[in-house]
Specification:
Chains A, B, C, D: It is an enzyme of class 3 (hydrolase). The structure is a homotetramer of 277-residue chains. With 277 residues, chain A is of the alpha/beta class. Chain A folds into two domains: 2-78, Alpha-Beta Plaits; 82-276, Rossmann fold (3-Layer(aba) Sandwich). Helix content of chain A is 32%, strand content 31%. Chain A has eight helices and 13 strands. Chain A has helices at 16-26, 59-67, 93-103, 122-127, 142-154, 172-177, 198-205, 240-263, and strands spanning 2-11, 30-39, 44-53, 73-78, 82-88, 109-116, 132-134, 160-163, 182-186, 209-216, 226-233, 267-270, 273-276. The first copy, chain A, has a seven-stranded mixed sheet with strand order 7-6-5-8-9-10-11, sandwiched between helices. In chain A, a hairpin with a 2-residue loop joins strand 12 and strand 13 (273-276). The A-C interface holds A 37, 39-41, 189-193, 205-209, 211, 225-231, 235-237, 239, 270-276 and C 37, 39-41, 189-193, 205-209, 211, 225-231, 235-237, 239, 270-276.
Amino acid sequence: MEKKTLLTHCTDAPGLIAKITSICYQHKLNIIHNNEFVDNPTGQFFMRTELEGQFDDPAFLADLDAALPPCTTRRLVDSTRKKIVILVTKEAHCLGDILMKTYDGSLDVEVAAVVGNYDNLRQLTERFDIPYHFVSHEGLNRQEHEQKMLEVINQYQADYLVLAKYMRVLTADFVGQYPHKIINIHHSFLPAFIGARPYQQAYDRGVKIIGATAHFVTNDLDEGPIIKQDVIPVDHNFSASDMAQAGRDVEKNVLSKALSKVVDDHVFVSGNKTVIL
Amino acid sequence: MEKKTLLTHCTDAPGLIAKITSICYQHKLNIIHNNEFVDNPTGQFFMRTELEGQFDDPAFLADLDAALPPCTTRRLVDSTRKKIVILVTKEAHCLGDILMKTYDGSLDVEVAAVVGNYDNLRQLTERFDIPYHFVSHEGLNRQEHEQKMLEVINQYQADYLVLAKYMRVLTADFVGQYPHKIINIHHSFLPAFIGARPYQQAYDRGVKIIGATAHFVTNDLDEGPIIKQDVIPVDHNFSASDMAQAGRDVEKNVLSKALSKVVDDHVFVSGNKTVIL
Amino acid sequence: MEKKTLLTHCTDAPGLIAKITSICYQHKLNIIHNNEFVDNPTGQFFMRTELEGQFDDPAFLADLDAALPPCTTRRLVDSTRKKIVILVTKEAHCLGDILMKTYDGSLDVEVAAVVGNYDNLRQLTERFDIPYHFVSHEGLNRQEHEQKMLEVINQYQADYLVLAKYMRVLTADFVGQYPHKIINIHHSFLPAFIGARPYQQAYDRGVKIIGATAHFVTNDLDEGPIIKQDVIPVDHNFSASDMAQAGRDVEKNVLSKALSKVVDDHVFVSGNKTVIL
Amino acid sequence: MEKKTLLTHCTDAPGLIAKITSICYQHKLNIIHNNEFVDNPTGQFFMRTELEGQFDDPAFLADLDAALPPCTTRRLVDSTRKKIVILVTKEAHCLGDILMKTYDGSLDVEVAAVVGNYDNLRQLTERFDIPYHFVSHEGLNRQEHEQKMLEVINQYQADYLVLAKYMRVLTADFVGQYPHKIINIHHSFLPAFIGARPYQQAYDRGVKIIGATAHFVTNDLDEGPIIKQDVIPVDHNFSASDMAQAGRDVEKNVLSKALSKVVDDHVFVSGNKTVIL
């Protein structure tokens, strides 16, 4: 008995749940969990179906494809661990959290490599027996640096890139190579405090809550589909750097939770939003 | 086009989702939302299906019943507002919250009457044009008092009774007349601080969080299926009465949210637990 | 034995706590709670001291004023209930929450009157025996309308005005009559979604959390000192109007909590921020 | 300019804040933060005063001691990092979180050693260049095992012992050697689910929230003074082992936060409660 997850995204139509689940039943695939969502304003149908059984009959997918509307995006994913490459700059907390959670088994992902534009986080990474690549940006323009980064990254054929406080803006070219495959942690409760130094902005505004946002990276900086957000309370006792320190806990928790949802195939992208089933 | 909700609870079997959704589709009933859950340890299947269409063909239910296992509990509920009777003692906050939320439309329920073993909350109730019945327990034993309460309550043919800080224990006879139809708010995070004076107990123990629990009432005091729980932080500055005061906000929020889930037919009872779909 | 609260705000200097608490001690005033805060970047000192004793000796305040720096703002407030006037438009939830909490004693404030630019909320208000004034804005320009509002409001000599979903922007003239005395609830987690229709903006952006902000009103719309913020999680299931509905709970809770802090003299304004002691 | 923290705990009396802060002022010690609390039911006074200045004049402490009641516990602690020894069994998450937080600087403590009754966590510990001691309990009675543990532990002269999912009950003898110096993480929201297998108990009861509790260890198992508690929501989808997995995040966060408060000298013990200033 194998387990696989069927992910269906198409234009909504009558009877889609019945059609899909009936085909599963006919092929003796047992449904463990089924979640669906119809986005009424856009008329889009999303369904995530965890299945158990024998998947060796190719007629299963053929039957599905025959029954579903032509524009359907349909994936049947097995439970192989996803592979990620993590991009970092200098801060350890998000990287460390992912490394520790993969170590203790609470995050089910393979960290293929860590790539940094500084060399600071080599020791931490290598302690977990993971290769670290230092690709300095010094003396390079943005395109040159990204080119070198991609040479390193692409060799790993990662399912996702994770920007774990990677503090450089990516070009459209770079992003275009990993569409909806790059997850970033932004150190504010987007769309508040877009741009540089969000904790300083939060301090200056006197907010009583700070947050963090994990999102897919698109060409529009800080505007990609949001996967997960969370917040913590602050007060007048917090300096801007206290806020940054307190925010690190939120950042790493939000990033880990978003990553977990993505690699377990719970996240659909729908325009500039996510649907999480 | 009408909207109804199909609630199915039966022993799990292969193909149940496909069978139910196919019958809906054959009868041109469109599925707006569908949620299902299988409780593996007990092998129970639960599904909640929001439908839209014409329900006048009796063959729909006949087809469903023919397709489902014999032991199935199957209900097709329309969107008529549920009717509740609220039981109170002296404290206003839970009653007031329900009255205000029905007034401003954020809680979709009809408060048929309020019944109190004191007369304190008459004015508040009547300001919302709802009948108030004072049924004193003085000079009566428990059975006699409950008998008088039931005479008042039963005339309203309520879907649910809500104990909004009703501070008397109900007998098995009373509870037996409203099985899984009585919702209580307990002023602690059950199962902590079962029994009397939970805030004093919480204070004595020096806890850093207090909570409230909404549950269905069964014969086992404080042991019925839990519908909703929530908590708030407290600290050394809180006296036992500060905790009680702070707890009121949690109590009323938890009770209102539990009630909302129940009257919108999201709550299944499964043994001494709830499944909320 | 009387209880009063001493509120001190001045430029920081060595020995301020010792000086103030020593003068209290010399005048046999017992300190029940003392909270202080120094804002290092601005060099401002804030202290809130709850005192118990006999306050009839005028030398107490004279001694304090002699010991403190010249620029000090020093207030000794007694425990008289503060008086508020509530401004509303059409939505009931924030008004209803304040009315109910003053009724059940969980908010210690006197609602002197409710003033609305529609007549919708008259019945709810009058059920709590509070005068309701309908001051329509129709056919009036902003100044004329505000002038009529102020004629009604000013007769009550309120300590604070509370904008409980009052949906009109106030002019600088109006605000200038109640400096740091007007509390507004904004239906977003400021500074996200400044301006009109924040729930629609939140929906369009696909955020996973929505919030509310209570702040003092200043001339800069949505930019006044923030008193309290809170949030709730949302997801792809929420339409813009679902978010608005869910947000109402946060709005009313945030406004009530902010109001409670303000009327119990916990809130200092420091530039465009608050210090809450 | 040095920084030290003055911790005062004594019977309440008039003028204590004035006396202490005046002596600080006379000795030219500037108060950065001051927090006090009087527990009225027990008449105990607690104050935590962060000071900055020159501490070389012995008259400062002499003056304090002369001014304070005889029973006072008074400590002046410098900002030296506290030293801890961590006790573990098999689970990595709490240990890993402390190691990572000390590594990235978000927890300011020195981990002197890790001692385990299994050898599982050696590799993780040694990757952070910290000594690991394996002290098996096999073939030993409780006293013999604790004796061997203490021989290892005592050589480090730790300020605190941290039980990071150390799954053995400590004897009164062991606890007596580190009074209010042993911090445990209990995997439930105490006092709910005291005893063994709390997640299974929580699952069986059908709770909607699970939690964790960090507390000082005393002779009464699960009854020591609570330092910190936190919770997360669960629902019918969680098996007992899902709850245990989800609970790990809460456990490690609660333990780290409690530890941070303790080693920064914010925590007073008052009977079987804590006062956190």
